[in-house]
Predict the 3D structure of the following.
Amino acid sequence: MKKIIIFLILSSLFLSCETEITDFKTQNLSTAYVVFGEMTNLNGPYNVRINRTSSYSPYDITAFQGDEIKGAVVKIIDDTGVATQLTETRSGFYQTSPLFKGIIGKKYQLKIKTSDGIEIESTIETLKAPTPLYDFSYKFISAERVENMRFDVTASIKDSKETEDYYFIRRQDFIQFLTTCPEPPPPPAPVPICYSKCWRTPLNTQPILINDFLVNGKNLPISLGSVDVKDFPEWIIQLDVFSVSKETYNYWKRQEDQRIIGGGLFDKIPAQIIGNLKCTNRTNQEVLGLFLVGGLAKQRLSVDRLGALSIENLQKVQNYASFNNIRYKDLVLWDCKKAAFINYNIGYKIPDLF
Amino acid sequence: MKKHLLIWTFICLSTTLLYNETYAQKKSFLLSGTVKDAETNAPLENANILFSGLTFGTQTDSTGKFSIFIPATSYQIVIRMLGYKIKIERFTLNKNTEFEFLLDKTAKILDEVVITAEKADANVNRTMMGVEKISGKTMKKLPTLMGEADVIRSIMLLPGVTTVGEGASGFNVRGGNVDQNLVLLDGIPLFNTSHLFGFFTGFNADMVQDVSLFKGGIPSMYGGRASSVLDVRLKEGNFDKWSAQGGIGPISSRLLLEGPIFKGKTSVIVGARASLSDFYLRYFNNPSLKNSNANFYDINAKITHRFGNNQRISLAAYTSDDAFKFAQDTSYYWNTHNISLKHNALLFSKLSHNFTAFMSKYKYGNKGFKPQYEYNWQPSITQQSIREDLSYELSNKSRIDFGGDFSIYRNDAGSLLPNSAQSIIDPFAMPVQHSREMSVYAGHSLNLSKNLSLDYGLRYVFYQLVGPDDIYSYQLGKPREIETITDTLSYKKGSVIQSYGGFEPRFSLAFKVDSSLSIKIGFNRMQQFMHLLSNTMAISPADIWKNSNAQLPQQIADQFSIGVFKNFNNAQNNTFETSVEVYYKNLKNVIDYVDGAALYLNQTVETQLLVGKGYTYGAEFFIKKSRGKKLTGWLSYTYSRTFRQIEANENQIGANFGLKFPANFDSPHNIKFVLNNRWTKRITFNANFTYNTGRPITYPNGRYKIYAFSDVYDYMVNNGLNPRAGLDRKTYTYNGQIFVLLDNATIQEILDGYASPSFTLRNAERIPDYFRLDLGLTLDPKENSKSNSSWNFSIYNILNRQNVYSIYFKSSTGLRNLARTYKLSVLGAAIPSLTYNFKF
């Protein structure tokens, strides 16, 4: 009884009530253009996507992507005036040549002219020197139960003391998975080749944002969490560390702050987030998005899950994988590349790092 | 303009002095005295003193004192006070005379229920308008949240007072921001009035003598904030006997002790309150709650010494502390400590003075516990002030109040320091701002005729921001940004960096049509030099205060108001007070923020601030049954609108495209109903009902995706992997059994980006309307019972309504970036509470 009373009191005080509104829908009343492009010091090709905004309809998958803007003239211009024009390879998708890359210390600007005469420009951005990772490693943490076994992954950046630095980091995991091959046909039929090792690349759109405010010149740890041991094929983590301008960092910081907003008493009031792009010939034309210019350092860490396991732990993991159908025993197939039931199944190999 | 105001004031004061000379030619003497409870010797406030042959009388103040000039003759004097036996004395007045009257209680339970701190018809007779008073006793009769009688929750039941949402700290008065309220605790300004983030007020209701809220018609003695004054007066200790009272409630418990140190001369009163919430949290299995803490306490203490009947000195201290940690890596804390010395005396027969000196320190901040990033950030504001208020009774129809104050502020924006040996955080110093504020004022209250009374006054405030400090200069003609900083100027200690000043005229005129009807007009100007920077939905305990500087001039509010006040008395002598007040307030230099402003640990915070204008207008309709045998209460309806407009100029960008927009707390329709019904001599039933239009909110007008995470998608497209033929899982059921098989399918991943809602106009929509009904029952002790304990049972939000505090928009990151919509109710349930109060 005492616990019930205490629960009632505190639940009313501390556990506020959050309810999802499933029928909230607004028409797309915005006429804004959405532009995203990036360029770094590494070889291209680099893409610029131009779209419209879409309606605020959370469950309508067809409305995920705003209409593409076709037929625009898109150029990247450096501080010497050299312009590189991008080619529209798909609808609303503009691309440089694979050999195009930025030079550290130079300034770049994106200029767009749409077919209906809208002119969009980014601010002039300096390509900063990339900052390689100082440390990128993992450590196996053993446990009695397989669910609690893990590899703690750590990484850090050695920040420069001389400069004010801002980092935008993308993480992409490449996870090898195993499928189950069918029983071979009875002899004398030849045994077909079975491909049971493929890679999946779960899409991660969560940026990691780090700056050196208050920790200038220190080793800046990157929070990467852990990798599970529910099965033991390879697991590769790729980090793309962009050294970016303060404005680019703040743009993403505001996006993140607004994305995780709780609507609570102390949350900031949401507002439009304007990046480094604007329309130069129509003052009321809003342009959303960003032209990201940054020095990029890419690095991969391969977590050898099999090699870290003792015989005893390996047996536990095998039993766990079997019991929990991690290898899709009920969906046997000869070619794991065809497994459509696995999201972002990219087949037998992963993209090259460079 | 300033010169004209000075001349105008001089003429008015001169006229008044001449006018009073004429009065003085009649032979009058000062009759003064004190009215006390015969049993406890406690001074009695609001006792009526009436004289035979005179059409006017007087009333005791909060210290039980009265003084009046009346012609020399023989009188029968009648002293009346609700709950006490009438006292009648005869005397002849032929010199200045002083009396002490002791009144005997009639019974333990009052015969009449009164829910006002003022005498009958005060609303009609008083020259000022926009003034609301609640006694500590009325406050305790209202239904409570978690059993806590609460000052600010009580004043929110008054017309013209709103809040941005349930649980939000502070309150908004007639379209003013939360920081535009001057909250005085026994004359000492508070910078934070909340416990538990705003669920409760930061001072103990048992200590409260009475509460006055000045929404308009603000007397010239008050200044420093732009919108309103909440003057909370605390009790003095009993001079004759010791007593204790307290209460045990679900959230906190409190105890108050008072009594004489030297009987009849020196008294002490100490009130303390502490939360029990940490105790409850330990019972939760949820580790987040179990490892959380949320606690507060506050202590008031006051020692008063009397030197004879006309002089007293008091030393008071107040401390309040809050700490909150919700099992995460950050804890918040805020505390206030102040100490004050007061001396008040009747210097001459007509001149009284009140001297106050105080020091107040408000500290706030947070601590981080994330491994390797442990820190402590602790800003603070220290205020040291001296103040002298004088009051000169020119006649029984005319009084001058004058005085001045001088304050020194030290506003430390909070250096951030590492808080463990392992912390990799560098110390980060934020500037400390020093400022001083001086003001002088004079106000005159007089009855021009039987029907016409006037209160007018003038206050002059002078503000200086002084060194030592390093100040950034910004390029003129360009919006302020770090890139437009042109210079850093270093100022030595005491050198003046920036000065502002200005006159604040105050004026109220009342025309009394008859004894029950009056029409009033008023004007007041207020200035504010300290500003709370907050761009969150409600103000947070970590929000910083900023002094006026070159980029941030003083906020100025000019309020015009007009009101009609009419009282009705029925055959049972029940009083119905009615009023209609209409106001318009113009706000200059209101503070706003660039979208997504970064206000913390920002040495160039002025780059995040915008200065604009605002205006608010409204009409308050009020009917109150303030006295009655059984039933009292009030009903109010307020229509009000509040707008802000932040235009771009050569030194700043605009907000909302320069278009006006409703303030966050704009709520056009407000209905408040308070009922107090005494069922029996022991049982009283209370109810509150509140309705208001939902507050403004910014909704998305679309959404967009940023394709910054498309490398794998592009790889798949470029390598012919998207689209491609594949096999997908298919299930079918046969004879109740589910079968799984593979079927031909196309593998085609959707390009998904980082989802973000698109917003345009600020506060163009509204959350759903708010309404809430609270009920309460109070069980008083039996008549003639030796114990003096009572029980209060309340249900807050008995309709169990989930009033929406906000609607917000969240996106996930990952495979499918859904954009979802949620609504949040801060107190989304009916909350019962039972409180035991005792007194012995």
About this structure: The longest helix of chain B spans residues 2-24.
